[in-house]
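INFO batch 0412 | record 1 of 1 | parsing
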Amino acid sequence: MDRTAKADLVSTLNGVFNQSAVVVVAHYKGLTVADMQKLRSQMKQAGATVKVAKNSLAGIALEGTDVASIKPLLKGPTLLAYSGDPVAAAKVAVDFSKTNDKLVILGGAMGTTTLNPDGVKALAALPSLDELRAKLVGLIQAPATKIAQLSTAPAAKLARVFGAYAKKDEAA
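INFO prediction complete | emitting tokens
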């Protein structure tokens, strides 16, 4: 890799670190190419990205960012998983590490907060932004649905009463 390519990679990574809500660092030693492709596709489906970069270049890119606290984790064969959603990258990384013991989560950062492996697992247990939005919409719509049911209930009861009287008169 020549000097300009390294500079481009550092500036790209710096932009990624500035815009990402969460960055997860993990060791990937022993993962096959098929496993890495599977991890990348799962991350892509969740709206996250996996990047394998040279540790020294990633360390340079971390300077001046909120997630600079993860620099000590960049030792050995590491990969970086990041996303704009604070939960997506952590959730996919933790789920993948449960099925594949070769992916070892070292830690991460969410903004200026440094996360240890347990912190990443706790973050992965939270619902994603889309799930939270769906719950919120459901909570907002629930009262409207109940009001509509209450407003139609008396009319329905009256209709049943009239129907019962009509059947009673027909039977007599």
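INFO post-check: The chain has a mean pLDDT of 85.
INFO record closed
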